[in-house]
Design a protein that fits this description.
single chain, 671 residues, mainly alpha, two-stranded parallel ribbon, two-stranded antiparallel sheet, myristate, Dymeclin, lipoprotein
Length: 671
Amino acid sequence: MGASTSQVSDLSESQSIRTLIDPQSISENEPFWNHLISFTFASPTCSADAKLLEEAVIPLAKILIENNPRSGNFATLVRVFLGRTKELKISTECQDQLFIWQAHNALFLVRCLLKVFIREMTEEDLHLHFSYQARALSTCEPSSEDLLEELICSLVHLIVEVPLLDITYNILFEAVTTLLILLSYQLFQKDILREGLIYRCLTRGRCLSLTSRLVKTLLYNFIRQEKCPPPATHIFQPQGDGGGLLYGLASGVASGLWNVFTLGGAGSKSGLDQEQNPLPLSNQSLLLLLVLANLTDGPDYPNPYKQAVICFKNTQDTSSIPSPQPHTFQINFNSLYTALCEQQRSDQTTLLLYTLLHQNANVKTYVLSRTDMESLVMPILEILYHVEERNSHHVYMALIILLILTEDDTFNRSIHEVMLKNINWYTERVLTEISLGSLLILVVIRTIQFNMTRTRDKYLHTNCLAALANMSAQFRCLHQYAAQRIISLFALLSKKHNKVLEQATQSLQRTLGADDGTALPDYAQDLSVIEEVIRMLLEIINSCLCNSLHHNPNLVYALLYKRELFEQFRTHPCFQDIMQNLDTVIGFFSQRLEQAGTDLSVERVQEVIKKGAAALPKERLKKFPELKFKYVEEDQPEDFFIPYVWSLVFNSGVGLYWNSQGIELFSMDSP
């Protein structure tokens, strides 16, 4: 039996599938169902395999959509799955692999069909397909059960109650993935969905009482970072000669069906895919958690999953004060912190870290209390350092995380006490030893410079400078290179300011000379933005000089070395007030150096600066308000976050593929 992906074409030839999609109804008790769900496969783990599978499923699912109102076979398939979920926990305890295997296969079939149904019909029509009964039952009383809600509740129960073991890994993955599929109606809507049957089932229905357990389980799935078990643990071994991979009694099933589902199995690209997605359950659980946490609040009821994310506590929190929140729970913060540090290369982990720091005060307090802050900050800095390779949303999230952290003065002090050696990913200059604080300054300045030459995003500038401003009063022992880069950034801005000013002057002269009514280019706006950035950088330098001059001789040295840069701004109306302090410092130290003589060595200059820093009377420097910036989400943050989260599902969901032509929520050039 081959495992080539070309065998997807066999799906349409499978007699079992043909029977399922035919108009003829099949009773729930027929042996057919055992045959149908007794195939062996490894679920697709990459979008290429998922695309092949979906393209094979679509025409078959469309036939089922046409015939299901008469046959009711889709609802029967769902009930077959539900019947097996009731015994899953016991089956796990008894190591009953056959039972788990069949339940998994039934759910996989439901998931594949649902994915096409959701693309082809409204939620109301989908709900009808769950309610169609076999014609033989049409004379009976209509069923009072809501099968769609029953399925959703069973999936949630499965996720929270079935323990994560090698034999349950794949069915837990399928349960998480199926919930993502059910919520994927949002992908096909341009507007943010604020209501719907599936939304109500998850936020107000029977699932509501399981909210905290679901969030906790998804978080622990992310934290545990369990790799997908090797195929031997979930693919049944050959039963004698010619038996294929089918298990015992199931060996009579036509091979044409299960061959299709060997995508990612032996002989295919599974090795490569496993490297790309070695943690499918962890990844999918995180995506589902982000989708649930970003569901919109209703007018009379807040999103319970967001509430759970906001209020959960550390398992070590022994406080006896009961939480007023209904969905609170406890989780091991140390394990969570470790997972967040290790997985920052992915957009979704950075987004989770942002969400927790911004919304959960318990997590924020814990993170800021850590003595190994470099474990978290270094991966964030690496994201920013490789800004060219990252999408803009990932860069924004990393920057805002830094901005949130720098709101805390203890953080701003402690990062200058953490010494780092040989930063391998920082390639512009060999940094044999540097403080975490100085490295943060270097990376943020580099991000500003990249933005100036490439994206020219005003908000990115603002967030970068706000983080530096928050830190500025606590700058300590700045590395020589960090001090140089601060002044170099000022030099670059000064040069840009002069260039725009010159262009504006020349343009004005040409326009006046021509006198033909030609519109004047809007250089005034460009000039205003540059002057705003220059002003903020001068305030950062001033804040450091006023609060910690004696701790930063390297900044004073860099300031003196490039003092001519500041001459032109001394009388500029936008900068006159802030320039007074810089003039005072430059004049004071220049005089001390003149008194020390000529041809001074670098070491001697630094010695003079250190002694002068202690002698400079603080009252000679004008007091300015403390620089403090606080991150605040804009109004209606869901307009940004919901498309962002779903773009992550679209691009990073393991074994998921959507045709981009039907996506309405975001443009295809989104991250």
